Amino acid sequence: MIGDLIKMLGAIGKGLTKPSPAVAREMVNGVGVSTVLTSDMGYETALIDSKGTHPVERYETEDQAKEGHIKWTGRIREGWLGVIEIGYGEIITDKMIKLVPFPEETKNE
User: Fold this and answer.
1) pTM for the full model?
2) If residue 70 lies in a helix (H) or strand (E), which one and from where to where?
3) pLDDT tens digits for 45-97?
4) By the 8 A CB rule, do 84 and 56 touch?
5) How far is CA 12 from CA 39, 52, 80, 85, in A?
6) Residue 15: φ, ψ to 5°
7) How far apart, in whole angstroms, are the C-alpha atoms of residue 31 and residue 81?
8) What are phi and psi of 92, to 5 degrees?
9) Which of 48, 79, 91, 98 has its CA at a distance of 20 to 30 angstroms from the CA of residue 72?
10) Looking at residue 91, what is its pLDDT?
11) Distance between CA 94 and CA 47 in Å, rounded?
12) CA gyration radius, the chain
């Protein structure tokens, strides 16, 4: 657990100096789908709604991340709003959430 905390604090520090490199980003039905290479957890897809940013899947390789991004954009297009937000090691546990899309004017298909 201490190792996870140190890793997280290091990532926060790095995040303050430079953004994570994007693999793909798009807005689908009022939900942002963002897949990036994070400094601490590797490749990750997060969904962004009106309540915040929710990591939903992590990957070993960039190719897996690209495939995962396509999968998540498809799920959002299909209307998925109930998802499991993945945690961070032993510090933050996984939890089921309901996405709340941004208002209509930010939707893009």
Assistant:
1) 0.79
2) helix 62-77
3) 999 999 999 999 999 999 999 999 999 999 999 999 999 999 998 888 999 99
4) yes
5) 9, 17, 30, 19
6) -65, -25
7) 9
8) -125, 125
9) 91
10) 86
11) 14
12) 14
Strand pairing category for 42-49 and 31-38: antiparallel
Q: What is the pLDDT of residue 89?
A: 81
The two most distant CA atoms of the chain are separated, in Å, by 43
Q: Residue written as tokens 């090691």?
A: 89
Lookup: tokens for 65: 């991340």
Residue 67: what residue type?
E
In sequence order, the 6+-apart residues with CB closer than 8 A to the CB of 33 are 24, 25, 26, 27, 45, 47, 48, 69, 72, 73, 76
- The pair of three-digit structure tokens given for residue 6, joined into one six-digit string: 């140190």
- Judged by DSSP in three states, 72 sits in helix
Tell me the two tokens of residue 80: 């998925």
Q: How many domains does the chain have?
A: 1
